[in-house]
Amino acid sequence: MFDFSPFYQQIATGKLGHWLEVLPAQLAQWQAQNNDHRYSQWLKSLDNLPVVSPDNIDLTHSVTVNSTQPLTDGELKRLTHVLQGLSPWRKGPFHLYGLHVDTEWRSDWKWDRVIPHIQPLDGRTILDVGCNSGYHLWRMVGAGAKLAVGIDPMSLYLCQFEAIRQLLGGDTRAHFLPLGIEQLPALAAFDTVFSMGVLYHRRSPLDHLIQLKDQLVSGGELVLETLIIDGDINDVLVPGERYAQMRNVYFIPSIEAMKNWLTKCGFKDIKVVDVSVTTTNEQRKTEWMTSDSLSDFLDPNDASKTIEGYPAPKRAVFIATK
């Protein structure tokens, strides 16, 4: 069983305190109903991480940690074994005591595209929806966040996050909760809410936008990254059974359609700050994620199309205010 009580104690006296009316019961239910037989195995494997003393931590330019006393060959081998047992690693990369966890996604590239355009994170309370391994949570901490909370229902990602937290020395400025956004009450307590790579997985994108708005304080900032297509305000792609081999892709809007959705949901000051085609340098197979990746999802004769014939992945970052 994972112990969430340190997080409860941390938020008890702040603006998130009223979350405690429902959160402990929700997380207890998640633990009771988690039927992934690997979860307890993953948690036990965390006990086999080498005991290290982080002396040099960089969360500003990367997620990197080192110690003055290098790991022995045996400790490095044990660290590699434990972390490879938590594969696949999709979001990163991480540089841990000389070990490079080369994840499927270069999430640092996405972060570098986002960070110049958003409100400074210094001293802010932040929610990251669909946080995966928590890579961006640590970058938020590196940018000065007071508290960065990630939510994602996948137990593997919780264990990946906790492994990194332990290796960083138990930093309590970031936390991972195995929940979906639909389980959160309208907290209206976060200064910034991130939703990156989530919207197109939602059956009702407008409901998702309203759920995000409900978490923000008045005047708070939404940072949303999603797949987009070319077109005007009326253009939205509704893929068939699969898009780039993903089954759970429901709506991919044009930039103007996305702006319209945000406006309908009550956001203002809407801006597009980046548009980027996803490349096979940014998303690819590695020894830490060995199953199919982007190169397998594109038309082998025309990289501008997915294997199903849809426009290849292009992503835009939207900034908006509650």
From TrEMBL:
Which keywords appear in this protein's UniProt record, sorted alphabetically? Transferase, tRNA processing
An example of a Pfam family matching this protein is: Methyltransf_9
Positions binding carboxy-S-adenosyl-L-methionine in this chain are K91, W105, K110, G130, I181, E182, M196, Y200, R315
List the GO biological process terms.
tRNA wobble uridine modification
State the Gene3D superfamilies in the record: Vaccinia Virus protein VP39
- Catalyzes what? carboxy-S-adenosyl-L-methionine + 5-hydroxyuridine(34) in tRNA = 5-carboxymethoxyuridine(34) in tRNA + S-adenosyl-L-homocysteine + H(+)
**Which EC class does it fall in?**
transferase
Q: Tell me the name of the encoding gene.
A: cmoB
Give one GO term, molecular function aspect. transferase activity, transferring alkyl or aryl (other than methyl) groups
What InterPro entries does this protein map onto?
CmoB, Mo5U34_MeTrfas-like, SAM-dependent_MTases_sf
Q: What domain of life is recorded for the organism?
A: Bacteria
- EC number(s) on record? 2.5.1.-
Q: Tell me, how does this one assemble?
A: Homotetramer.
Q: Which organism is it from?
A: Zophobihabitans entericus
UniProt similarity note:
Belongs to the class I-like SAM-binding methyltransferase superfamily. CmoB family.
| Protein name, entry field | tRNA U34 carboxymethyltransferase
Described by its record, this protein's role is as follows: Catalyzes carboxymethyl transfer from carboxy-S-adenosyl-L-methionine (Cx-SAM) to 5-hydroxyuridine (ho5U) to form 5-carboxymethoxyuridine (cmo5U) at position 34 in tRNAs.
